[in-house]
Amino acid sequence: MDRRLELHEKLCEILGSRYVYFQPPESVKLHYPCIIYSLSNVNTTRADNVLYLHKNRYMVMVVDEDPDSSIHQDIMYGFQLCTFDRSYTADNLNHRVLTLYF
Question: What's the CATH code of the domain at 35?
């Protein structure tokens, strides 16, 4: 299975719904709570000038109407390489931004 699709399924499982979006276009109507994620970087390690190891880094954003939502914490507990980045409110929605390596 493609690693991104595997990540997608794990995020759906944590959220408990299919409202997980990978780089959604503006035309997609979002349903809340939801998780929006996108590829933000690829960390590579080289040995003898050959690609040895790479990890995709994703920006994962939990958007929820509930200011006390714990979905972001569930994601952090569910992935070993995940850190909290920032939190903000926009359009009466609470955004929690995480950095996740997968």
Answer: 3.30.2000.10
